[in-house]
Amino acid sequence: MSTVTVAVNEPPQAAAQTLMRPMLFTGKAYRRMSLLLLAVIGWGLFCFLYQAIVGLGVTGLRRPVFWGFFVTDFVFWIGISHAGTLISAILRLTNATWRYAVTRAAEAITVFALMIGGIFPIIHLGRPWLFFWLAPYPNERLIWPNFRSPLEWDFFAISTYITASSIYLFLPLLPDLALARDRTRGWRQRLYRFLAMSWRGTQQQWHRLELAIQLMAAVVIGIAVSVHTIVSWDFAMAVVPSWHSTIFGPYFVAGAIFSGIAALIIIMAILRRVYHLEAYLQPKHFSNLGKLLLTMTLLWGYFVVAEMITTWYGNLPDEMGTFWSKISGHFAPLFWAMVLCNFVIPFPLLAIKRLRTISGTVIASITITLGMWLERFLIVVPGAANQRLSFNSWFGYYPHWTEISLSLATLAAMALLYMIFSKIFPIISIWELGGGKHAAAAESGGQS
Amino acid sequence: MIEVSLRVALDPPPGGAGLPGLVARLRREGIAERRIQVLSREPLPEFPPPPSSMSKLGILGALFGFSAAIGAIVAMTLGYRLHTGGMPLISPLPIGVITYEMTLLGSIIAMLLHLLLGARLGPGRRAVEHPELNFGEAIVCVACSDAEQAWQARQLLAALDPAR
Questions:
Q1: Contact A160 B52 (CB under 8 A)
Q2: By C-alpha distance, which of A126, A79, A121 is closest to A225?
Q3: Could you give the CA distance from residue A301 to residue A133 in angstroms, rounded to a whole number?
């Protein structure tokens, strides 16, 4: 007889009350933080308008570097989006019972990170108001998008992923929305009644919901892997030294999962602290995610070594220019900072059991998030900065204040979206916690 | 339509028949299967899922997404002929990338529709709510067409109540 373990020993009724408390009560700290984030977002909007009116000349983008902070941020956020749906889908399909406390927080990251990531190609456009030209729609110009362009593939991949992830986030929310509908009054009840879509909890509904979630989990994995592969092809399809690499697809997917797990651990730690969810987000969750993160640290290290050693052994002059710029040249400080953040610091923290505590995994995750942003930057910029023509010199790209402001503003937007989500929806799946308990009881013979 | 309901604990009292036994008794008493519904806050393993056509519909949706993507790309590419420098106008590999995404999207949307229609879910629908339902409990509902049928169902449920 197999055993099913659940996240907490608290009765489901009490768990429901605890987990719904953040939805019903809003403290001063929450309001102050929201205002601060809104101010940062407001500043970012001003920068965006300024850039749209004056032009991309206000950024540090100069010939030959036309892809800088914005494209780095785009790749970074799409990578972070792999935290949720992909990890949640894998945990569901493998029936990892410790997932109950983790999956929703993860799935929400995906949807919001995709929203933020999807904004960057628009910000990066010289004329952002024409972004809809990417969409294939009947128009008076009789011009259709160029389907050969990897940027067009991005449009399809990201819009598919955000649709699938939103559905995958929303479906498991239905029973909890119905619970919220039944436990609230006034405008909240009307809101939850609308969102719960007349969920009653009949066995027919449960069977269909569970099957839909299970089937969608399998499909979503295929989408998630394809999305970051396609993002990597934005680079790999260009005949640019250090970009034109067959390894980029799996390298980007592994990097995305790596940064995604790190982001998930950070957010879980914040939720645990702010909403007092110590009983639900336990050390074992951080430890289990820490083990996954350790695996990805090693995989990331393997990919970096494989990429570097192949380039070095080939010794092609154009490739070597970019190679040495990272190892000992203009970009060396950033490269070695990346190695420090992605491997040297997190490896011992995650590998040594005694250090794989909540604090240890959070420190490792913070350094990894920083390191993965640097990795994205070091993929995007040195390749473009490496001039292959003899009469042109290398160009050192330096971001301007508009780019830095917009990056910070989108980070604030991500935080605010997450705060709003955690205020409206239970951040931990209540029914899955309850269901886990009942399934455990039924399986151990408590029910006939 | 009148709904008569009985709230029961999921953990049966010692010697009790439990929820599946209660539902079986209702059926034996002549209440049609389609009139009985068991509501709960969590999925109940006591009621195994019946065979479902959701996966088949997912495959159909995938085929639809695949065909729609191929059709749209070919039509649009031929509608505005780009200069490709002698390369084929319709290029299979880029089409493959977009078709892959649309195929999976078609599958997901088909499964979503199957869920919403089959489980009678939708923002505009009205259903009898049972806010009193808690975790660790279930509500057995019997749908009745008139007051007399409702009275009979109420009597029957009262007789079968394990808490009595």
A1: no
A2: A79
A3: 39
Alpha-carbon torsion angle A14, A99, A431, A191, nearest 10: 100
Q: Which residues in chain B have Cβ-Cβ distances shorter than 8 Å to A438?
A: 10, 42, 44-45, 135-136
Residues of chain A neighbouring B125 (CB-CB closer than 8 A): 197-198
Rounded distance, CA A266 to CA A252, Å?
Answer: 21
Look at residue A18 in the predicted model and tell me its pLDDT: 83
* Torsion, CA A296, CA A258, CA A159, CA B99, rounded to 10: -20
Distance, CA of B142 to CA of B153 (rounded, Å): 7
pLDDT band of residue B51 (cuts 50, 70, 90) is: very high
Domains belonging to chain B, first-starting first, are 2-41+133-160 (3.30.70), 54-118 (no CATH)
DSSP one-letter string for A23-85: HH---HHHHHHHHHHHHHHHHHHHHHHHHHHH-GGGSS-BTTB---HHHHHHHHHHHHGGGTH
Of B10, B77, B98, the CB nearest to A438: B10
Nearest CA of chain A to the CA of B44: how many Å? Answer: 7
Q: Each residue of B71-128: pLDDT tens digit?
A: 988 888 887 777 778 888 888 888 899 999 999 999 999 999 999 999 999 887 778 8
ipTM value for the complex: 0.92
**For residue range A281-335, what is the model confidence (pLDDT) as tens digits?**
999 999 999 999 999 999 999 999 999 999 999 999 888 988 999 999 889 999 9
Inter-chain CB pairs, A–B, below 8 Å: 193
The answer to whether B135 contacts chain A (CB < 8 Å) is yes
**Residue A138 clears pLDDT 90, i.e. is over it:** no
Q: Map out the domains of chain A as residue ranges.
A: 23-130+162-232+241-434
